[in-house]
From TrEMBL:
Any one GO CC term of the record: nucleus
Pfam families, per database record: Methyltransf_10
Biased composition (Basic and acidic residues): 377-405
Entry EC no(s): 2.1.1.-
Sequence positions that bind S-adenosyl-L-methionine: 75, 103, 126, 175
GO biological process: rRNA base methylation
Lyase is among the record's keywords: no
Protein name: U6 small nuclear RNA (adenine-(43)-N(6))-methyltransferase
Disordered: annotated segments: 363-405
Taxonomy, superkingdom: Eukaryota
Top enzyme class: transferase
PANTHER family: RNA N6-ADENOSINE-METHYLTRANSFERASE METTL16, SAM-DEPENDENT METHYLTRANSFERASE
Length: 405
């Protein structure tokens, strides 16, 4: 899940059931007391999406019963990745973002979320009559016609002839029909395993939404063909990919088309995996893979190490100022042959004065400190037997190395 995705924390179904009677109808209480819905029930999943759109984005949406239900965690993962990609594009800060959504579905899900969340403008295309009509109603009902231009297109077209080429677009996005309408059923390449249609979306999607001649690879191939004609009008082209096996042939097509750079990402939401591909023909944009923290491939960051030095451990119990403690910690690190690289300027951290040092341990100098201190004591008392050794307070240094700050 993208680190900025608000559904990293799943919605509280109990709270939704209490607030929305239409959701309550689908909520079931388990023996444990936990409230659940049946994700195989299209009506339940549809109601979940509509109440979340209402509660979290102030969007009133009515979804038709026989069309694909847009689940929000995946839709937001795709939009958030586009937000990340736009960081790689130099653009005037006051310039309004304008995107294109190819095949916008039954409620213009990406344009309405992006308009509410980011105030972006969109041109959205749709080939299916029912989806086009429902999307238009959604835009009217939510006063979003000033943000979204909806265009009815034919399914044998992609971008060419459908968009206004006198405008400059920041990106295109697309959730294509994943399956091949010519195959007897949605099968994997090996034909061994049936691939699910729109998993966890309640399975209410129509064939025109989920299947197309040649499947997603052919659909994206048509898109790449159109991109070449429109490369001066669009900065970044993107698409979602439903099957991992489609990524390699699409990347070959991008290379053949002369894309300047491209990158990919994973959209992980529960057990459903999707992929995102972005490419550009602009030689000023260098797209690089971004794996947002928190996605599957990212190792969990270890918790920060914190250590409280008790007052009794200091000789000088009177001076416990930040500067004095900092000096002592630095001395301690230097005595352990740790390279202290930089002392940051004072900064305010939540109102508390704080300081930081960056340090590097080149070898393990902190183990067996007690034995080393005993040896040192014996050595110094032999060298300076006229000087009585000060009784030193014990500082526990037999700890793991302190990580770089
Ligand atoms: C998988 S659905 C995605 C809908 C929506 N974007 C979403 O993410 O929920 C694909 C959509 O593309 C539409 N579509 C198929 N071919 C198209 C084409 N050539 N141009 C525009 N829309 C098309 C379908 O009618 C369908 O609504």
């Amino acid at each position: 899940m993208h680190p900025r995705n608000p559904y990293q924390t799943p919605p509280d179904f109990k709270e939704l059931a209490l607030k929305y009677p239409e959701f309550r109808k689908h909520a079931k209480q388990k023996l444990t007391g936990k409230i659940e819905i049946d994700f195989k029930d299209a009506a339940a999943v549809r109601t979940l999406s509509t109440v979340l759109l209402k509660r979290d984005f102030n969007l009133d949406v009515e979804l038709p019963p026989d069309r694909l239900v847009p689940t929000l965690p995946l839709r937001l993962n795709y939009l958030l990745w586009i937000e990340d990609l736009l960081q790689m594009v130099k653009r005037a800060s006051e310039q309004q973002v304008h995107g294109i959504d190819i095949g916008t579905g039954a409620c213009c899900i990406y344009p309405i979320l992006a308009a509410r969340k980011n105030n972006w403008n969109f041109t959205a295309t749709e080939a299916d009559d029912v989806n086009y009509e429902c999307s238009l109603k959604t835009l009217e009902h939510n006063n979003l016609l000033s943000h979204v231009t909806l265009i009815k297109v034919t399914s044998d077209t992609m971008l060419n002839g459908n968009i206004d080429t006198s405008l400059q677009y920041d990106f295109t996005m697309c959730n294509p029909p994943f399956f091949d309408s010519d195959s007897s059923g949605p099968k994997s390449r090996s034909e061994k395993r049936a691939l699910p249609i729109c998993p966890k979306s309640g399975g209410s999607a129509s064939v025109t939404e989920t299947a197309v001649k040649g499947g997603e690879v052919q659909f994206i191939k048509n898109l790449i063909k159109d991109c070449q004609e429109l490369k001066s009008s669009v900065k970044i082209f993107t698409t979602m990919v439903g099957h991992k096996s489609s990524l390699a042939p699409i990347k070959v097509l991008l290379k053949e088309a002369g894309a300047f750079s491209w990158c990919e990402t994973e959209f992980c939401q529960g057990r459903t995996m999707r992929w995102g591909l972005a490419w550009t023909f602009c030689d000023t944009i260098s797209l690089v893979n971004i794996t947002p923290a928190g996605t599957k491939s990212n190792a969990k960051a270890p918790p920060p190490l914190s250590y409280t030095i008790p007052r009794v451990r200091w000789n000088d119990r009177g001076d416990f100022s930040v500067d004095s403690v900092m000096t002592k910690i630095t001395e301690l690190l230097i005595s352990l042959k740790i390279e202290v690289r930089k002392v940051n300027k004072k900064k305010k951290n939540g109102g508390v004065e704080s300081k930081a040092v960056e340090f590097i341990a080149k070898e393990n100098t902190w183990s067996n400190q007690r034995r080393k201190r005993r040896e040192e004591k014996r050595r110094t008392s032999l060298e300076n037997d006229d000087q009585p050794e000060l009784k030193k307070s014990k500082i526990d240094t037999e700890r793991k190395p302190i990580p770089r700050q």
